[in-house]
Amino acid sequence: QDMLDKIQPLESQICELEVGRRKELERAEAFLKRLEKHQHQTELLENRLNDELSTRALSLLFRQLIFTELPTTLESFMSDKFQAFKKMTESVEKKLEGEMALLAKKEH
User: Fold this and answer.
1) Which of 33, 31, 51 is nearest to 43 (CA)?
2) Could you give the CA distance from residue 51 to residue 58 in angstroms, rounded to a whole number?
3) Alpha carbon distance 20, 40 (integer Å)
4) Which residues of 4-19 are buried (b: 16+ CB within 10 A; e: fewer)?
5) pLDDT bracket for residue 4 (50, 70, 90)
């Protein structure tokens, strides 16, 4: 009987410890679920941030292209075309002057 009297409180403590262990396990599982939810939300925010950064980078690249490189390219293109047109015009003028000189000689 003496041994049973000693075992009974120990059984009671074991039951309390088991209940406490289950509660801690439930808390740990709930915490893990919250952590997974926060991790998922963090990933979504990171994806949104990366999308926003990509969009801004493309926007800056487009602005650089439009406001810096395009005018320079157009200026160079127009300069090249103007030079070609100028050479062609000078060539036509020289031919015209030559033909006018021949006509003037024939008339005399």
Assistant:
1) 51
2) 11
3) 30
4) eeeeeeeeeeeeeeee
5) confident
User: Quick one: tokens of 101?
Assistant: 């000189």
Name the phi and psi angles at 39, rounded to 5.
-65, -45
Tokens 């941030």, residue located = 49
Each residue's pLDDT tens digit, 31-68: 999 999 999 999 999 999 999 999 999 999 999 888 88
Based on DSSP, count helices (H) and strands (E) in the chain, helices before strands.
2, 0
Beta strands in 27-84 (DSSP E): none
Q: How far is the C-alpha of 54 from the C-alpha of 40, rounded, in Å?
A: 21
The pLDDT of residue 97 is above 80: yes
pLDDT tens for 83-96 read: 999 999 999 999 99
CA distance 106 to 103: 5
